[in-house]
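This follows on from our talk about sequence and fold. Please put the record directly below this note.
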Amino acid sequence: MVTTNAGPATAAPPAARAPGLLRLSPQAKGTLALVVTVLIWAAFALSARALSSSSLLPADAALLRFGVPLLVLAPALWRRRRRIAAVRPATALKIACGAGVPFFLAAMYGGSLTSAAFVGSIVPGMVPLFVSALMVAGGRGAPRGTQAAGLGLIAVGVVALVWRYVVPLNTQVLAGAGILLVASGLWALYTVGLKEVDLDPVGSIGLLCLPSFAVMALLVLTGVLPTGLASAAGSDIALFLVVQGLGVGLCAGLLYAFAIRSLGAERSSTVGSLSPVAVVLLAIPLLGESPTAAVLVGVPLITAGVALANRRPRDRNRPLPRIQPEVPDHA
């Protein structure tokens, strides 16, 4: 027994023995979860760009992206199988197409033609515009006030990003930007579909990953999409397994859901709008990308636009439709 000059040492109370993380307030835990989520979203954009120089092919990355969450969550998904099977086919199709194989391949291919800054800015940044368009088409009413101003800033920011590639014409970058716009539109479809399901984050992950992994496996087995997984470098497999499978596919959704419960949707989406900035900053040391003048102008405009588009309207008697780019299950 340890003794001191004051006598025998007594056991510390439970609160004193608890790890530092357990003593954090719910708000601090939510903020920490949100910061980690933003870093994971940034890692998705960085990996989309890094895939072009990797020994993995897009199909390999997709198999890791959708397969790892299924493996880790298999017992929990089995318990939710009836609720997942009860989702309407139209809604399930929105989710599977909006964030599944079509979205993943578009984001990966678009990133290989552009830069990490383009992926991190265009894909999440344009989602509020596309979601707003879908809501207007569905008769939900047009955005007003700060939401409309935010959508305008997003559009101006995207134009600022791509303008320097119009004169002189750079068809590769413009094509990549167009493909990333398609990916963003698909993600908006996923966002709308996600609002129509009554599933927890784990069930939503299963609803997305089950059909996506099945489709990707079928495309690989039939030779439609080539695979190099058997001959890929172990370091590349480990990187994409951690970033795409565990990070994007599993942790981001669970952490973002926790952050929303702790901080609220408005605050979470506003802090989450910093993801494009994180991508630009991380791409400098990790990928050797130097931000151009277009990036330095366009990314802040898109970030400010997303933050404004997600502000809660002051007139609570006539609330505007929420058009935040929700990412409760992955990025």
